[in-house]
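Dear Dr. H.,

I hope your travels went smoothly. While you were away I took the liberty of generating a structure for the chain from your last submission, since the lab meeting agenda had it listed for discussion. I wanted you to have the full record in hand beforehand rather than looking at slides cold. The sequence, exactly as received, is reproduced here:
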Amino acid sequence: MHDLRMVRDQVAALREGMRRRGKLDLYGPIIDEAEALDRSRRAAITAVEEQKARRNQVTQEVARLKKAKLDADAAMAEARALGEAIAAREAELAPMQARLDELLLGIPNVPLADVPEGDETQNRVVRTWGEPRAAEGVKPHWEVGSALGLLDLERGAKVAGSGFIVYRGRGARMIRSFMNAMLDLHTGAFGYEEVWVPVVVNRAAMTGTGQLPKFEDDMYRLADEDLFLIPTAEVPVTNLYREEILAAEDLPKALCAYSPCFRREAGSAGKDTRGVLRVHEFDKVELVRYCTPEDGEAQLELLLGHAEAVLQRLGLPYRVLLLAAGDTGFSSAKTYDLEVFAPGVGKWLEVSSCSVFTDFQARRANIRYRPAPGEKPRFVYTLNGSGLAFPRVFAAILEHYQQPDGSVVVPEALRPWLGVDRLA
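The corresponding predicted structure, in token form, is as follows:
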């Protein structure tokens, strides 16, 4: 959510941010309405204050006239009329503020200055790691997974529908090994505090991180309660400190969590329907950080490095993309994607997005810190990233480590949890 001062004093910067996203046609009218509504609201507030000041004067005049035993009827009538006018004006202010809040909630974050302008075609490869395996002769993961008894896509569809996966035997154990290996790495080597969070959250939590109100159609909602299945552990973890003030010495704060994630993927019909590349339920380890505004970009690079370390330990070739403004998520000010190469499908697969949100989420969720005792609280900067998402890592391992005899070598980093060095 944007500070109201953005539409009051920095509206040109806000419009420029939407232009860089390629969305000025969409959000320009919303900004115009917010700017006009703010002017009307301030004018109404000024009028109320003037009327209240006049009512105070008239009230004093009524008291003086009565004390002097003079006729106060006219002054009393004016006081009543002013009271009615003030009540009417104040009744107008509440819906004006509600509409202004609604407009501000619907405008995306402004991309940072170093984010490339344009759509996804302007995404920039920052660096690569490892050598992608040649695709020749490599089978797609769904064939390998089914042949080895690791995947049961048909029964997943039978019990839940398309886009839901059943892992079996060592496939299920591999998914569990992802959770253990990733959590142990992030808590042990990188100092994250592990938390176990609910997989349902309320509307305030979803609004705080920016999923609502704009993306409600992509969410799974409980029919009889205003609760939502989480699309990522980002939502409950970030909201742990909603409506709280942290001390400066608490920052930076680093939390990680495993969770299942639920996404309806509205509008994605027909995309990556085979295998586990695009599903409605998947598992993920999420990294969340809070920091001071001055530390935001340094913390993003640190977070990105932690996600990269997982891929390096798994030995999976990957590339780092800096997303262009038009491909950057609604709440994000800057995002790096990590993509692994899956030779069986011949694609780069996103397994992590690492983002800094500036104070956009913190303002919505009212997460602040006090720089020093007695100083005015400021909004924190929030960051998050996948460390990592499981299904595409699973697919990349089956394809990258596939052997001519149909077996799959297990990355050394997973062997302590999986208990074998080869899937056959």
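Two observations you may find useful: The mean pLDDT is 95. The longest strand covers residues 281-291.

With kind regards,
E. W.
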